[in-house]
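Predict the 3D structure for this chain.
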Amino acid sequence: MAWALSVLPLLSIAQETQLTLERIYSGEFREQGLPPLQWVDDGEAYAMVERDDAGKPQIAKYETVSGEKSLLVEADQLIPPGQDESIGIESFSFSPDRTKLLIFTNSSRVWRANTKGDYWVLDLETAALTQLGTQFPASSLMFAKFSDDQSKAAYVHDFNVYVEDLKSGEVVQLTHGDGQNIINGTFDWVYEEEFGARDGFRWSPSGQLLAFWNFDISKVGTFYMINNTDSVYSKPIPLQYPKVGQDPSSVKIGVVDIKGENMHWVPVPGSSVQNYLPGMQWVDEETLLIQQLNRHQNKLTVWSYNVAADELTEVYSEVEDTWVDIYYPDVSAGGWEENDLKFVDDNKAFLRMTENDGWRHVYKVEIASGEKTLLTPTDYDVASIAGITDKEIYYHASPENTAQRYLYKADLKGKGKSSLVTPKEFAGINIYNCSPNGKFAIQTHQEAMAPNSYQLVSLPKHQEVRELEGNQAYKDMLASLDLPDVEFFQVTTDEGIKVDGRMIKPVGFDASKKYPVLFHVYGEPWGAVATDNFVGLWNIMLAQKGYVIIDMDNRGTPCLKGSEWRKSIYRKVGLINADDQAMAAKKVFSEFPFIDTERVAVWGWSGGGSMTQNLLFKYPDIYQTGMAVAGVSLQFIYDNIYQERYMGLPQENPEDFINGSPISHAKNLKGNLLLVHGTADDNVHYQSQELLVNELIRQNKQFDMMAYPNRSHGIYEGANTRRHLYTLLTNYLMQHTPVNK
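Done. Predicted structure below.
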């Protein structure tokens, strides 16, 4: 008995080095991010949300160089008169003269993001706190913005644009849509999802006019999701969603004065249905810059519109045989932003990334003449623009290793060479938020076995000013675990395609043993997976259990390997990407003999769910088990902007849509298949799963499935959902692709 008691502490220590799903979802591991932060004083200072000693939110200002702290907004200033609780802060913005602060709080979700909420104005000189739109229901305003003279604020409510006088409180309704089929000042579902467009109006510099998007969605087909759980009777949830081949919304741009009396529509040529308008912004008091994209999305036209003269002039056009990108998916892009072009040279020119010459380069385009100047004359891709000064442009790139990202700079006049800014010791993913004056940047760094850390650096020498958040506690927690090794590799398929990969090896790896492998896939133009970012706790847990986990990026993924690599997938989604994955897997088996080819699983989400289905159906001799989450089984049922961008219009090449769809190959299923989908998925509809289920039944194929009621594409809503999902995936993997034979 004494011996048994003596080893209990050792057993406890051993267990603490291992991850479990219970530990992962217990809150034990907490990675810290940066709170909402804004540059102020042109970058000589920054402001961020913090908590006081009582846990109440406040806004602090830090001098960039010295780090000296002062309070811009004290916690008590955020408590309305007669109330006890703070309004809270989810985001904030300053008026142009920084005498007022606009605070967004009490938000509610609109599809992807929390874009509805309450807006409050805090007068920083008088400390007066006033709520906007008090005549409207709580949490119902969108995109409030100050006018340049900070006398007014405009916002959207119920698909209409309003202006409120900050002194008198007078509210003027500028647009008069029906609140249902006519959308003003924001966007329909597909623009939000595929163009990242949310905020749909712009103040003119004079503060006397507003330009806004107007959508007529009355002719867009309605898809119904079903809520079966919140009542004894089911409730249909309508969603106006344009499927592939169906016409999009009719869209136009209006300009109206702040009294709502004089409104006119910009005469953009061409059909308002067969063309998209993904970008619009003011250049000066009288000029709008408008981006127009044709239905095939292979021609971009930038128009200059003189409001006073009602004249439209073509400034720039760009044509591709495949598609023209408005937004460039990349790990360095930092998520969706407005599609505004970046102005330079006192708004006389704008920057445009294009890849007509084989690489993605940055050009400067003169608005008056349309003259183009190449700013990055390199034989490598630009990933994204990080910042602009009067003399230079900062951008993310990685010429030698597509798994990583670094900061570079180039001359804004197109003279001189590009140069590396990030020190070479920062291997991994480095993303920068540059200050307006270009003297400083906040660097976010991560790598395969290290979570995010944030530091303030001076530019262009990249000298550390201070660390903002190192996530040291999280790193210490990771260091206490048994951790795997991560290896980056490249294989060349029999077709001569060089595929980059990331391999997480089992903890205690022994090259003489045989290990099961789990391939994680995505494989479409919207994302890459074989990148040097933190692998995550679930992958670490699987490696501790004895799995090899591999991510590989096929042709068509947004790797920094040139335009031909990315655009080769045009009209071949589900074909060349699946073929590349399967052929690369074969090479992995031959080059890494420790992988057991009889224990091969694959999984993915969204496009990765589609890829998983295709791989299991088309290459059943390679993959024995597949776990497909929220995949598109039939390309004809996905939204038109995404699918038509990469596949063309189905009226012109229906056979490509059929051949690339997993459902067309379901008859070949031999292995173990788990289908997972949320029934309230507004992105990839639950219809996708049911169609595939029907086909598998028709083909007499056995499979497993899980439906998550009222969960969206992310399958996270509701208590315990994520833990349940990853328990399901883990158990399925371990049952059908066991660690031990």
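Residues 554 and 580 are 6 Å apart (CA to CA).
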